[in-house]
Write a structure and sequence with these properties.
This protein has two domains: 127 residues, 3-Layer(aba) Sandwich (Oxidized Rhodanese, domain 1); 216 residues, Rossmann fold, CATH 3.40.50. α12 packs across α15. It has 17 helices and twelve strands. The strands form four sheets. It has a five-stranded parallel sheet, sandwiched between helices.
């Protein structure tokens, strides 16, 4: 039975991490790109854990064998299918213990040599946390702008042009506001965020600089590493500007239009607004905002939020960043990208340092 390190896994071409933990463990966090071929269901895992605590390890192991034995042809067959496709499956569990060892051993008995990951997911996480600070390029170009100016759209277009981009909102599964998960799942946890950030940094590891949105330290349920924040705060600053009308239209298009027919969306808006109401001192404004929301006049809701809630807080956030701000009109995102690339060319000597 072969064993490989995390570093060897990351270097292995066409590797497919095979997570043999329960579906619940896999859903909570996993190695990016992993497939879940579980030995136990969530209920079976809980049962074995209870037996282990109440009756001891030997009885728990015997019960585990009884549960897994009928599943082995299916489990091994799924791994074999990956192997037959020319992929390189690598078996892992939480810490490289009995679950991954059992699957790798049975595969070996069946004539299929598939390695398992030394230390399992825990070793992977320790490795990426050590590597993330080392992978961060030395210069950042932070994209600023009031809510709705199209920062994400500009970043996506820069990436399409081959520029090194770190999309923190994509890593977080959150769009950076109280409404940041509307239409999405509930956002990534810290473990999955760190894994996706590591993957993004690997993709740009040969670049001396990167573009990134000027997000606050916390994005939804996750926090950025201090090393990344430090590079951002001492880099270049690009500020995107757009009219209030275009900002309202963009937010409506991205946040409202896809879900306007869904009752859950209206319920969620009212729920999130109730959080904002607690932070607003002007009760007349609260009443206006609440009335617009109850009438489902979402463009008015957006306008009130921008003018009286988000915009006044924007200038304070910029104080965290050092250096001059370079301003670009983002009414036309494509034009803004071209002008940003011209700005980058003027700073190319500095970017190569």
């Amino acid at each position: 039975m072969r064993e490989i390190s995390v570093e060897q896994l990351l270097e292995l071409k066409d590797s497919v991490p095979v997570d043999v933990r329960s579906p619940g463990e896999y859903d909570e966090f996993s190695i990016p790109g992993a497939v879940n071929i579980p030995l136990f269901t969530n209920e079976e895992r809980a049962l074995i854990g209870t037996i282990y605590k109440q009756e001891g390890a030997d009885i728990a192991k015997w019960r585990a064998m009884e549960i897994v034995s009928p599943k082995l042809p299916s489990i091994l067959g799924q791994v074999k299918a990956l192997h037959d496709e020319g992929k390189h499956p690598v078996i892992y569990c939480w810490r490289g213990g009995m679950r991954s060892k059992s699957v790798a051993t049975f595969l070996s008995f069946a004539g299929i040599s598939v390695p398992r990951l030394i230390g399992g997911y825990r070793a992977y996480r320790q490795y990426i946390l050590e590597e993330i600070p080392r992978l961060i390029p030395s210069k950042a170009i932070s994209i600023h702008g009031m809510t709705g100016v199209g920062k994400t759209e500009v970043l996506e277009k820069l990436k399409e042009k081959g520029m090194p981009v770190i999309d923190l909102e994509a890593c977080a599964g959150h769009r950076g506001s109280i409404f940041g998960t509307l239409g999405l799942f509930e956002g990534n946890n810290q473990k999955n965020f760190d894994s996706l950030l590591f993957q993004a940094l690997i993709e740009i590891k040969d670049s001396p600089f990167f573009f990134v949105e000027a997000e606050s330290k916390r994005i939804g349920k996750v926090v950025q590493p201090d090393e990344l924040l430090d590079v951002k705060h001492h880099g270049y600053n690009i500020n995107l500007q757009a009219s209030l009308t275009s900002r309202i239209e963009r937010i409506y298009r991205d946040y409202v239009e896809p879900y306007i027919q869904e009752q859950w969306f209206h319920d969620k808006v009212l729920e999130r607004l109730s959080i904002i109401y607690k932070r607003m001192k002007d009760q007349e404004l609260v009443a206006s905002l609440n009335g617009a929301a109850l009438n489902q006049d979402y463009k008015l809701v957006i306008q009130i939020l921008l003018e009286d809630y988000y915009d006044p807080r924007y200038a304070h956030k910029q104080l965290e960043y050092e250096g001059a701000f370079h301003h670009f009109d983002a009414e036309d995102p494509d034009k803004a990208v071209e002008e940003i690339l011209q700005f980058l060319e003027s700073k190319s000597a500095l970017m190569k340092q």
